[in-house]
Write a structure and sequence with these properties.
Length: 385
Amino acid sequence: MMTVFNFLGRPRTIDDQIDGRKISWLELFYDLIFAVVFSRITDGLVEHLSWTTILNATLIFWWFLWGWSETSGYFDNHGNGSILNVIIINVQMIFTGIGAIFIPEALHGNYTHLTIAFLLIELMLAAVWFGIAHYDRIHGSASRVWANVHLVSAGLLIISQFTPNRWSIAIIVLALIFNLGDVFFANPNLEREYQQTNMTHVVKDSLIERYGLMTMIALGEIIAGLYEAVAESGQSVALSQFIICIILIALVSGSYYLILGELHITLSSSIKVIMTSWLFILDIFLIFGMGIALHLALDEATLTLKLAFSGLLFGSLLVMWAIEKIAVSGRGTGLSGILVILLTLLLLVAVAWLPMMWMLVAVDCIMGLVIVHERYLAHRDVITK
């Protein structure tokens, strides 16, 4: 058995941290499968929009992004070029791809097949963390807690397969809550680890970069939807809207990297680290939802859809500013910071009453002002230093 493991290789231990770690091609390859996940959710919502499909899409999104975040966190702390890690990340990609096949039926409330894919992801991660507990003496106790939490969630998923539909969805939600809260169960063990190794609680730069790449995949899904809209219409008005929307996507991307791209986040506990990490995921969710609202508003420019688009865009900016405030002491505080937030909200809501074309132009201008404001803050910080 040891000969087999020597051939497959071993994960890095938690104290074997790589300064300035670069994202590997293997991680980038894994991220690409989520373009399929986003596309399947988007197509299902656009074709059958209702409160039921919206709620199911939210649950599906967070399940898939939890799996991505857990696998990414593992690879950031323990990943290397060993055959074992190549197998782990590729198997996770396969399970994710299998799950994406069943997204359309899950959007309508049938989770039977998708739950099996989630169960495979859950069991795979439980096995991974039990393996880390065996190889990594320092990280072993926390890893065992995570593995046991995943086994509990796996048990809940199995139970959901044998319960009526209304109860099965509630059980699937409960399993997700267990997964998202695993750090709370492991926190005492993690704190002992950090004291033992003198490590600092940080959201690692490499993970921040991964969040940025996933955000760009979500923005790419918006662009793909815009191409489809123009291809179906072919009118000059649609082409003009397409150009304005592409500018908007570029401005959102620019705002994201200007606000979050250069942050170095140091915190005081593992719980604060995971909560900040979930803020990054929340921002991806809001940007993804904004893209769907934009797609729908271009098809049918109702006030409700336009307000939903503006609200999701503002929510995304608000989360970015919250993360920035966590990372940069004094940034965005005081009366001026509050006024900027309120003014942005007021403008984004007000422009929803404009015709769609002019609304898009106005939103582009607002996002341009956001970028100018952030550049001013960055320049001011450099001068004050």
